[in-house]
Amino acid sequence: MSDTANPLLDGLRVLDCSRLLPGPFCTLYLAQLGAEVIKIEEPDGGDYARAMSPELFELVNRGKKSVTLDLRKAEDVEAFKRLAAEADVVVDSFRPGVMDRLGCGYEDLRAVNPKLVYAALTGYGQSGPYRDRAGHDMNYLSYAGVLDQIGSAGGPPVQSNVQIADLAGGALTCAIGILSAVIGARASGQGAFVDVGMQDGSLALQTVALSTLRSLGHTQARGEDMLSGALPNYNLYRCRGGGYIAVGALEPKFFQKLLAALQEELVPGAVSSVLASAASRLQKKKKSSGGGKSSGGGKGGVGKLAKLMDDPTRARRALAPVRWALVAAFRLKTRDEWARILEDADACISPVLSLEEALANEQTVARGMVEDHGGKPALRNPIQFLGAQTRSGGAPALGADNAEILGRPA
To answer: With 104 labelled, which of 31, 73, 300, 368 sits at a CA distance of 20 to 30 A?
Structure first.
């Protein structure tokens, strides 16, 4: 079978009116999946990211084309409508109503192309009291309750350098909406308006905290829910020299393996005794001689640990000695020493890597995630296919494709 048997999004034309990060990241994925993405930029400077962060612009606009149009001019609005008449998708990231006032909104464009999918990626969506507010990633995360959940127990909220609202809540959510609407348009002949608010998309990611709310009637404080700090077997530990190990031994079977591997490395003492005791309590009891069921799933240590999972506060208190022992144990060796010792333990353990280390990591290299782009690293599309192929390319100069697409110079 040919590697290019499935064309993916080949033939899909996208007019990208967005700027900065969320919209361009969304259309980057579409371009990597084969769509023709044409950036619509103002003649005087274009996308703000060109000047604000040239490297960011380069990364999120690879594989696209660029034309310059001033949509405040009637002749350029008509040129844009001619492009829209032949396009499949328009993406904009302006506040609600901006494109309508320019005569380029959804209703204006669907009049010339009923099959058009129009995606508006905004902070708060097209409705509600916040629709016209300005905002950025941290604002959407704060309103969605996400920022409140990030950080250590007793500490302040922590900003992430991964833009959760912009990229996961916004760009990727929008890409799903666009592709769904395109499939529907091809089947029905009718396009759709795709309304994606980054606050909405971020709120939709709150699955774990919402499950806690449903179970207990309230959320847990920052750093104190089951996956944010309550459990010693799902936590981060500082090692000698300052590095960190991520312990993701959530299931009892992985926790048992971790405790066993640690005990082999520790000299007898208080720390070893606490870990040995915890390991012993996790062992399932044998079946009774009368053929009864094993009590491990209900009354044994595994069953008790499972019950603790329903109550983060109880879990944190009951497992405090184990947490203390793990803190002490991991301080005895460096991050890389523990990573080597535990790599074959099958216990969901990993070193906390810097981005530089992650780019050079053997798994990253084996998956071919990094490509050389102008002598600097860039990331390929993370979706891998059999029977199809993603694409790459450079970011366009401002108006580089005016002649080809508009029939006029840059």
So the answer is: 31
